[in-house]
Design brief:
heterodimer; A: Aldehyde Oxidoreductase, domain 3; 4-stranded mixed beta sheet; 9 strands; globular; B: alpha+beta; Ubiquitin-like (UB roll); two-stranded antiparallel ribbon; 7 strands
Chain lengths: ~150, ~80
């Protein structure tokens, strides 16, 4: 069974540190794929200064664990790491970091892709974009729903 | 019976509160009834859409026909948006 770690972080997320730690813990892996998601500085409404990611203590952590464990059961991976921010996240900062280790590349690519598609629509988080003169709650798009369907 | 109700995201914003503790004389109540009593006004005014509000009991996603018990923790929140 693969090693699964999930982190919900109210403070800064440092993907580089997480990556180094993940590599160290998975020295035998032939492939490591990572994804770093960052807060876009611009939207159609204008310049974004920061996001507020609301969360439900307990339920949010459980949703990250459920998604990561489903990925571990589905793909031939050695280890998975999911780290997600909550609270206030500044523009251009990392909001999510995932890493997948496997013996060969395909499973690692697919696991990272799957993790991100599910996190977008199924992680118990609520995103609000705040910029100069606007603030809006973000809801998953039709594209996000299509992305999720790729795995059903 | 006492029920703790939590609100998150746009639902919390719309109601202007994150938590409410309610005491009901009726001990036989469904989530549907509770949702109507807490969010009925927001649905009627269009401030919230019934289809876009999810609900959980004791941190597990559930449907409106779920019956409630004293001490349950209920939450109402919009569809998720992470990543």
């Amino acid at each position: 069974m693969a090693t699964v770690e999930t982190l919900l972080l109210p403070q800064a997320l440092d993907g580089q540190t997480l990556y180094r730690r993940f590599v160290e813990a998975n020295r035998g892996a032939g492939a490591i794929v990572t994804f770093s998601g960052r807060v876009r500085g611009e939207t159609t409404d204008g310049a974004v200064s920061h996001l507020w990611l609301d969360w439900y203590p307990g339920m949010t952590e459980q949703s990250l664990t459920d998604i990561a464990e489903a990925a571990a059961a589905r793909f031939d991976v050695l280890a998975l790491l999911v780290a997600h921010r909550c609270g206030e996240v500044q523009a251009e900062d990392e909001i999510v970091f995932v890493a997948a280790a496997s013996s060969h590349r395909r499973a690692a690519f697919e696991a990272a892709d799957y993790l991100m598609d599910r996190l977008k629509s199924e992680a118990a988080l609520w995103k609000r974009e705040i910029g100069e003169g606007f603030a809006r709650w973000v809801e998953p798009t039709a594209k996000d729903a299509d992305d999720l369907k790729r795995w059903t | 019976m006492q029920i703790t109700v939590l609100f998150f995201g746009k639902v919390a914003d719309t109601l202007g509160e994150r938590q409410r503790v309610l005491d009901f004389a009726d001990t036989d109540m469904s989530l549907f009834t509770l949702r109507q009593s807490v969010l009925g006004t927001a649905f009627a005014s269009g401030a919230l859409s019934r289809e876009r509000v999810l609900m959980s009991v004791n941190q597990g996603l559930t449907q409106e026909d779920r019956s409630l018990q004293a001490g349950d923790e209920v939450a109402f929140f919009p569809v998720f948006s992470g990543g």
